[in-house]
């Protein structure tokens, strides 16, 4: 057996000698971050000063240095940001849309607070203070900042630039529960009437209607699909001859900075790919839209611009907001139709079916984010309690 080695980051016995010029030199064997032992020395005018100089020199030898990276604990935070963005692109695991979102959040929310700091100065207390301050402004912004800050610092740990991720110990972000909003049947009818009035041409405000907005709303309401998923429907995805009619949710619309909007050949998650039976109002809307489209190929989009390019989700949102503003209806977003459909299914058939319709893998997500909770308890409880405790119940 060989002699055991000293641990990485430790040095052997310090030796003090003199140089030819009469100065003092302190030296020791130091086991570096790569496992190799090296002779390290420092010179000064006295033995004590030489030892202090040696210790200072050893303290600056970082144990955490990734081979291909020039980052060290003394690198500025912006250097880590650039390194992290390059690593994400090299890994190729995330979509371009997600990477652009992460970059926007990092540069817009996090970097201004950390740009003058070195990595070793980014500690738990500073991260905790930053997130709590941002949360007072916006819980959503704080949540987004927490994600990218954890990812970037996590990369620094994996590449041995930092010994630990300070984000592992920050306190959780808290906010008051936000109950999902859903439309009542009466409110749905008001939205339909507003869109119908606008599409009839009676309203002179805004661009000339092309008849698509009403159909898009009916399909969102009848399928619980996200707006991007509805806009991504192709002719081959719609089967109006079956009973009931069905549509297959198998893609979504993606708009990326600097490139044209495209149809992505898969929805948000794998579970989101599904075949949904259409209620009569959605099937009728799709029949009308396909009749308006005329003869199109199987891979052509059901909803498209006049140039046969995909509609962008932002433009449809903007158009819906414009139409409802004219009617004095506020606060209605495309995602609200998704929550409205989920709420209706939950009230009539339970959360499991609502989760399947939405393409959720966990019904708890459906309950938390997509279903408006009713304050009314099933009145059958009164009957059951009467049977148990009524003063007129038969004596036993």
Automatic annotation (TrEMBL):
Protein keywords: DNA recombination, DNA-binding
One of the GO BP terms on file: DNA integration
A UniProt-annotated Pfam family: Phage_integrase
PANTHER family (UniProt xref): INTEGRASE_RECOMBINASE PROTEIN MJ0367-RELATED, PHAGE INTEGRASE-RELATED
Protein name, entry field: Site-specific integrase
UniProt cross-references to InterPro entries, sorted A to Z: DNA_brk_join_enz (IPR011010), Integrase-like_cat_sf (IPR013762), Integrase_catalytic (IPR002104), Integrase_recombinase_N (IPR010998), Tyrosine_recombinase_XerCD (IPR050090)
Signal peptide interval: none
Residue ranges of domain Tyr recombinase in the record: 178-385
The keyword Zinc is annotated on this UniProt entry: no
Gene Ontology terms for molecular function: DNA binding
Key word DNA-binding present: yes
Superkingdom assignment: Bacteria
Similarity field: Belongs to the 'phage' integrase family.
């Amino acid at each position: 057996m060989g002699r055991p080695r000293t641990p990485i980051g430790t040095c052997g016995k310090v030796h003090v000698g003199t140089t030819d010029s009469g100065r003092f030199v302190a030296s020791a064997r130091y086991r570096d971050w790569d496992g190799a032992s090296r002779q390290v020395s420092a010179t000064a005018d006295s033995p004590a000063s030489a030892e202090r100089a040696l210790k200072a020199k050893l303290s600056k030898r970082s144990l955490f240095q990734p081979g291909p990276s020039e980052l060290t604990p003394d690198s500025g935070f912006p250097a880590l940001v650039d390194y992290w963005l390059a690593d994400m692109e090299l890994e190729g695991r995330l979509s371009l849309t997600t990477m652009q979102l992460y970059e926007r959040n990092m540069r817009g929310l996090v970097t201004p607070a950390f740009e003058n700091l070195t990595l070793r100065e980014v500690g738990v207390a500073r991260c905790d203070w930053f997130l709590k301050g941002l949360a007072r402004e916006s819980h959503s912004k704080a949540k987004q900042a927490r994600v990218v800050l954890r990812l970037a610092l996590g990369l620094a740990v994996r590449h041995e630039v930092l010994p630990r991720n300070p984000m592992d110990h920050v306190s959780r972000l808290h906010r008051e529960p936000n109950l999902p909003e859903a439309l009542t049947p009466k409110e749905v009818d008001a939205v339909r009437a507003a869109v119908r009035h606008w599409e009839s041409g009676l309203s002179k405000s805004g661009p000339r209607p092309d008849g698509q907005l009403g159909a898009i709303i009916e399909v969102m309401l009848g399928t619980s699909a996200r707006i991007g998923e509805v806009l991504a429907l192709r002719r081959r995805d719609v089967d109006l001859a079956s009973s009931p009619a069905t549509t297959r949710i198998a893609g979504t619309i993606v708009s990326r900075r600097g490139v044209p909007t495209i149809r992505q050949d898969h929805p948000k998650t794998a579970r989101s790919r599904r075949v949904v039976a259409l209620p009569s109002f959605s099937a009728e809307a799709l029949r009308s839209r396909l009749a308006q489209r005329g003869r199109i190929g199987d891979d052509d989009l059901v909803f498209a611009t006049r140039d046969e390019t995909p509609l962008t989700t932002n433009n449809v949102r903007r158009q819906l907001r414009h139409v409802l503003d004219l009617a004095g209806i506020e606060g209605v977003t495309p995602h609200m139709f998704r929550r409205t459909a989920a709420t209706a299914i939950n009230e009539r058939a339970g959360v499991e079916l609502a989760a399947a319709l939405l393409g959720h893998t966990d019904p708890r997500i459906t309950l938390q984010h997509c279903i408006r909770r009713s304050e009314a308890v099933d009145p059958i409880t009164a009957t059951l309690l009467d049977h148990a405790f009524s003063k007129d119940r038969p004596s036993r």
